[in-house]
Amino acid sequence: MQRFVLDTSALLSGREFPDGALYTTPSVLEEMRPGGRMRRKLDFYLEAKIKVQAPSPESMAKVKELAGKTGDAARISETDAEVLALALDLGEGATVLTDDYSIQNLAKSLGVPYVSMQMKGIKSVFHWDYVCSGCHRKYEAPRETCPECGSKIKTKRRKEEGKGAETKGDENK
């Protein structure tokens, strides 16, 4: 049976879910606002279809390690990491349902299939650099300001090797 891991955007999409076993994490449920039509729909799914499961510490460590390597560490939340880690725990064929581009970026890097619910998905994997907007120093890890000049640190998509295309900026999710 096909297994699907739902992130918050999938639950909020209002779309029907594919046939198969549905999973989510406790932190996804915490992100859902109490009350309202979507919460009632979620409560129905929780009673009838969705299994709530926390991911293993080993899979969480794997996701966070890769997020550090791709530069996605500052772009994903703990909840996002849990969704991906749960998909790893569920094994081959587990698919993440998400409209979150950062989750999709890491999913692709992890070899975890994903399906967008309402938006177009990503076309390729991006790696991110952290660059000072003032002195243009590059940093390995995200930070708010540059320790050298005090300017704001921006997230920038890393140039692809062998291509002369300029780096495109991103204003941090």
Question: Could you please describe the fold and organization of this structure?
Answer:
This protein has 173 residues and is an alpha/beta fold. It has two domains: 3-115, 5'-nuclease (Rossmann fold, 3-Layer(aba) Sandwich), CATH 3.40.50; 127-159, Rubrerythrin, domain 2. The protein contains six helices and nine strands. It has helices at residues 8-12, 26-31, 36-48, 57-70, 78-90, 101-110, and strands at residues 3-6, 21-24, 50-52, 95-97, 114-115, 128-132, 138-139, 153-157, 169-170. The strands form two sheets. A five-stranded parallel β-sheet has the order 3-2-1-4-5. A four-stranded antiparallel β-sheet has the order 7-6-8-9, with no helix packed on it. A hairpin with a 5-residue loop joins strand 6 (128-132) and strand 7. The protein is elongated, with a radius of gyration of 18 Å. Mean pLDDT is 81; it is low at 161-173.
Labels describing this entry:
five-stranded parallel β-sheet; alpha/beta; four-stranded antiparallel β-sheet; 2 domains; Rubrerythrin, domain 2; Rossmann fold; 173 residues; single chain; 6 helices
Largest sheet: 5 strands, parallel
CATH classification, class level of the largest domain: Alpha Beta
Q: What series of H and E elements makes up the topology?
A: EHEHHEHHEHEEEEE
Shape: elongated
- For the termini, the CA-CA separation is 34 Å
- Return the domain count: 2
In total, the number of strands is 9
The third-level CATH topology of the largest domain is Rossmann fold
Number of helices: 6
Question: Averaged pLDDT, please?
Answer: 81
CATH homologous superfamily name of the largest domain? 5'-nuclease
Classify the oligomer.
Answer: single chain
Which structural category do the helix and sheet elements fall into?
alpha/beta
Low-confidence stretches: 161-173
